[in-house]
């Protein structure tokens, strides 16, 4: 009779951090233990949870006997280390320590990866262990794995996404309920979407970190957060939101990463990566991404357009992505094999902000007299910018906007041009004698 194979030894999982995400990771690891063991090929045993304060109140799902404030000892004796503490240090030092000790690591920490991912990738490579980070970009949405693995045989040309749940929630609330930015942000914080310091969300740092990670994977080029041109949503006003709706758009904080291709059949000359508020046409699928949801559009040479949609923030959705990575790393421990390594062979230059191709919608207050529009359009022509539409508000819209007598509003929407030409054009329009104020400049994307 053949011998019964020995039961695989349990894999020791250490959890670093027990906040919004960590609590849900602990819950899923323990709640679904039998199913996870079958999928991973070995039981996954949560052996400890590193926290700052072991006496602090915790959700009832947390087994307090697992809490420790000695993260280093925990890391030294684990097969898989899950980092959901956030921040640069001590997260980086603990992950490097785990890797050096031979553990596979799973992290949701986009800020760390976008600042210093290559240090971790190199360390994992030399130690021959897995580093996984699906939760770091767009929470529950599988996007890291599809870009890194499913599209490894294709050429990604462009990634366009809503990558921050907090700002999408805030902009959606401003557009649909008329809430102020501050009130909507407080709600997003209460719902667990926001970063520990919500400035990272509002000022676009969080989306920029995710954009850097995605661009690195998509274009086989190292892109760090410092390479990303970034603007947050702080300057978006209720009037901008209202005008977007009147002109057939909705304002979204977009992350855009694309290749500059200087002609058919020519090698790409660089990569442009940026995060900023943008007007998205109401008919575009990204316009319908509501609340804290995220979505990522990917354009690839052979695949064409792909869209990924789901919950980009929140404890349980993010924990789902973490658990998927834990199971992948566990399978490698049981069966052998290793996850993908960093791929940077293309090493494309990062293009300056001014080289990005975009469109502008500009709102200007001008003297209400004959010939002003001709002067404005002349300036656009001088900067090589062509106009797609000029709109002058109706009397009713002017009343809503409380227009002064003798002042006319103009809303100019341009065709695509390099950012540098568009910015120079706006400065020249602002300098015209009959122009009182440039009230708003927003980029138009996805049209
Ligand atoms: N909340 C989300 O929706 C979400 C989604 C995707 C990724 N993330 C990322 O996941 C990570 C965790 O996010 P979160 O929302 O759970 O944050 P959180 O602030 O709720 O939790 C982090 C926890 O780690 C603990 N911690 C911090 N430093 C520590 C240390 N030195 N030792 C022990 N514990 C420490 C904190 O006390 C806190 O309880 C971050 O990197 C974040 O960017 C969060
Ligand atoms: N603060 C982030 C969490 C998910 O990474 C967001 O709002 O999208
Ligand atoms: Na993800």
UniProtKB/TrEMBL annotation:
Residues that bind NADP(+): 16-23
Domain ACT: start-end pairs: 361-446
Keyword entries, A-Z: Amino-acid biosynthesis, Methionine biosynthesis, NADP, Oxidoreductase, Sodium, Threonine biosynthesis
Active site: 210
Gene Ontology biological process terms, A to Z: methionine biosynthetic process; threonine biosynthetic process
EC number: 1.1.1.3
Database matches in Pfam families: ACT, Homoserine_dh, NAD_binding_3
Family: Belongs to the homoserine dehydrogenase family.
Protein name listed in UniProt: Homoserine dehydrogenase
Annotated source species: Cellulosimicrobium arenosum
